[in-house]
Amino acid sequence: MGHIKLTNVAKSFGNVDVLHGIDLEIGDGEFVVFVGPSGCGKSTLLRIIAGLEKPTGGELAIDGAVVNNVPAADRGLAMVFQSYALYPHMSVRQNLAFGLENTRMPKPEIRERIAEAARMLEIEPYLDRRPGQLSGGQRQRVAIGRAIVRRPVAFLLDEPLSNLDAELRGSTRAELAALHARLSATMIYVTHDQIEAMTLADRIVVLRAGRIEQVGTPLELYNAPANRFVAGFIGSPHMNFLEGTVETNGPGKTVATLAGGHRLEVPLDNAGIANGAKVTVGVRPHHISIGGEQGLPATIRLVEALGSETVLHADVSGQKVLVVAPGQHDLAPGADVRLSLSAAPLHMFNEKGLRLGHAV
Amino acid sequence: MSRVAAFVFRRKGGKGWHWTDIVTWVWLVGGLFIMFGPAVWLVGSSLKTPAALAEFPPTILPYVTQKVSVEGFDKPFDLYEVTLDDGSKATLAEVRRIGIVSQMVDPKAPGEIIKVNIAQRTPVREMSFATENYTEPFTHFDFFRYLWNSVFVTVVATLITLVVNSMAAFALSKYEFRGRTAAMLVILATLMVPLSVIMVPLYSIVSALGLFNSLWGVILPTVATPTGVFILRQYMLTIPDELVDAARMDKASEWQIYWRIILPLTAPALAVLAIFSVVWRWNDFLWPLIVLSRKELYTLQVGLSIYSGELNVQWHFILAMTVVTMIPVVLVFIFLQRFITTGIAGTGLK
C-alpha cells in the first residue's frame, strides 16, 4: 500500500512546459520531500499525483495500477493544502466528517475516527468551533486531521508549514516526523525550505525548472551533490564556489589555480578533465577554518556574531566566501586573514555544473 | 439621546460653520425632501376623499368640510364660517347655492333661510382620514387573490433565479473550459437588450409553449438574469480554488461541491440577488400585463390598473392600494439593507 511510481510524467500549460519527463519511484511508507526554488514544478507534480491536474504525458501508477484517468477522489490519497483549505462554514467536526460522509461511512464509525484523530492531534477542545475561530497552528492540525481520518494510501502535503511562525514551524515539524513514524504511511511533502527537507525526509527530490536534479537521502545530497545547483541549494549557509582552471590532472590529485593565483589541491580519483579547463571548486562554509600559513588570503567584509558561531563574509581576490567558524572571534571588517581549506571536503564542478569524480 | 444629537449636529468647522457643513446640510435636507417627499405625499393623499384629491390648492393633510344635520332636512349640509352684512360672524349650514348666492340656515334655528354672497363664507374644515379607500377595495376589489398571485410569482421566481443563476455562476467561475470568457461576455451583453426589444419574440415563445395566461409564463422568462449571474460569479471568484480541490480530494461529487461548499459560502451575494429579485418581480408591470389577460390571474401591479379607466381614474383607490403594495418592498429594504449596502459595495452594481 502506498507505492507510487511516475514514468516520464510531463506537464505543460499551453506552450509552457512545466515538467519534463519525471521518473520517480516512491516506496511504501517512505517520507519523500520535493524541494526546489519557487516555480520549479514541485507543487504541480504533487497536484498531478493527487489527481487535481492531468499530466500531458507519461504514466502515474499507485500500487501497480495506472491511475492517469482515475479521478482524485478515487485515488485513495489525502492532501494537506498550503492555505489549509478548511471549509469556513463548517465546524471542525464537520470539516473532518465531510470526506467520510461522502464515502457513505456509517455514523458511529465516523464519530470514532474523528475522536481518534482529535485525540492524536490534541484538537478535541476545538471540535465545535469554526476554522475562523482557530489560530494558525490549530488550523494546521485540523487540516492534517482531515487527511488522517480518511486513512489514505498516501499523504500529500503542499508546503503545510509555510504559514506558521518560525517557532511553531519548528515544533510542528517535529510532530509531523512523529506522526509519520506512528502512521508509517507514505508521505509526499513539498517545500522550498531545505531545512524542512533535511530534517523530515527519508529521501529528498531536488527539482529545478521541471527536471529532477537529484534524488537521495539528505546526507547523500549534502555530501555528494550531483551538480552545482544541488550543492548550492542543500545546506545552510550555502556552499562557496570558487572559479579556477585545472593546472595538473593526475590520479588521486587535481590541482586547480584560482582566480587570485592561489593553487588548490583537490583529491579526485579521476577528474577526467583536460588541463586548462575551467572548473568551479565548492567548499562548505563550515569546513573552512581561519589561520594556517598555506591558506587563501582573504579580507573580512562583514562579521555576524551568533554567539555559538560566527559567520564571516570574506573576499578572496574578488570572490565572495562565507565562513562559519565555531565560537566567537575577535575580528573586525577590513581585517586580513588566511582561510585554510586543507581539512575541508572539496567538490569540483565542470563548466556544465556537473560534479567531477568522487571525493576521496 | 445627547450623543445622537451630538452625532447629527456635528460640524466640520467645530463651533463655526465651514462651507462644507452648509453644503452638506443643504444636500441632505434637499435629498430628504426629494426622496421622502413623494412617499409622504402618497401616504397623505391615499387618505383623502376623491373630492379632497381634486381640490386646488392641495393640502398635505386630508381635510374635509365639516357636515351638520339640520332639523327638517334629510341630508346633512356643509358647515361654513360666514361674515354677515352687519359685520358679525356666524357658523351656518349651506342648504343650496344659486350662482354666487348661497342659501344658508343656522343649525340652531333652522326655520329661517339666510342669503349670503359666496365670497363671504369659508368652509369649516376638520381633519378626516378616508379609511374607506383602504377598506373598500378589500370588499369589491379582489385584493387577496392579486396579493397571492404576486407573492407566488415573486417567491417562486426568486427561488428559481437563485438556483439557476448560481449554477451558471459556479460553472463560469470554477470550471476551466474553452469559451468560458466568451460565454460570460455573451451573458453580460444581454444586459444591453431591454425588454421592449425582445417583447414580441418572447411573447411568441411563451404563447407557443402554452404558458399564456399562466403565472409560469410570468415567472420563467425572468429567472435567468445576467445581473444575477454576474454578481454571483464575481463573488464566487473570491472563494479560493483550493477549497474546491480539497472537496474533490474529500470525494465530494460536483453537485456536493456546488451545494455544500460553494452555495453556503456565496450566501452574502445570494442575499443581495434575492433582494433584487424580490423587488424586480414584485414591481413588474409590463410583462405580467402582456402575459396575463384573465382577471383572476392578475398580479397586484396589474390589478391596480383596473382603477384607471379610459374616462375615469379612481385615484383614491390607486393611491391607497399603491401604499399597500409598497409595504413588502419597504419591509425587505428595512430588514435587509445591511446586505444591500455590503453587496453593492462588493459588486459595484446597482
UniProtKB/TrEMBL annotation, chain A:
Q: How does it sit in the membrane?
A: Peripheral membrane protein
> Can you say where in the cell this protein is located?
Cell inner membrane
User: Mind telling me what this protein is named?
Assistant: Multiple sugar transport system ATP-binding protein
Choose one Gene Ontology CC annotation of this protein and give it. Answer: ATP-binding cassette (ABC) transporter complex, substrate-binding subunit-containing
Looking up Gene3D superfamilies in the UniProt record yields: 2.40.50.100, Nucleic acid-binding proteins, P-loop containing nucleotide triphosphate hydrolases
Asked if Transport is a keyword of the record, the answer is: yes
Q: What is its main location?
A: membrane
- The keyword ATP-binding belongs to this UniProt entry's keyword annotation: yes
* Database matches in SMART domains: AAA
Q: Family per UniProt?
A: Belongs to the ABC transporter superfamily.
The GO molecular function terms of this record are:
ABC-type transporter activity; ATP binding; ATP hydrolysis activity
Q: Which PROSITE patterns match?
A: ABC_TRANSPORTER_1, ABC_TRANSPORTER_2
**PANTHER family recorded for this chain?**
MALTODEXTRIN IMPORT ATP-BINDING PROTEIN MSMX, OSMOPROTECTIVE COMPOUNDS UPTAKE ATP-BINDING PROTEIN GGTA
Listed under GO biological process in this entry are: carbohydrate transport
Q: In what residue span(s) does the ABC transporter domain sit?
A: 4-234
Q: Which UniProt keywords apply?
A: ATP-binding, Nucleotide-binding, Sugar transport, Transport
* Segments traversing the membrane: none
Automatic annotation (TrEMBL), chain B:
Q: Per the UniProt record, which residue ranges are transmembrane?
A: 21-43, 146-170, 182-203, 215-236, 257-280, 315-336
Entry keyword annotation includes Membrane: yes
Where does it live in the cell?
Answer: Cell membrane
Alphabetical keyword list: Cell membrane, Membrane, Transmembrane, Transmembrane helix, Transport
Q: Which GO terms describe its cellular component?
A: plasma membrane
Specify where it is mainly localized.
Answer: membrane
> What membrane topology does this protein have?
Multi-pass membrane protein
Q: Which Pfam families match?
A: BPD_transp_1 (PF00528)
Does the record carry Ligase as a key word? no
Q: Which GO terms describe its biological process?
A: transmembrane transport
Q: Which segments constitute the ABC transmembrane type-1 domain?
A: 147-336
For this chain, the family text in UniProt reads:
Belongs to the binding-protein-dependent transport system permease family.
Protein name as catalogued: Alpha-1,4-digalacturonate transport system permease protein
Protein source organism: Aminobacter aganoensis
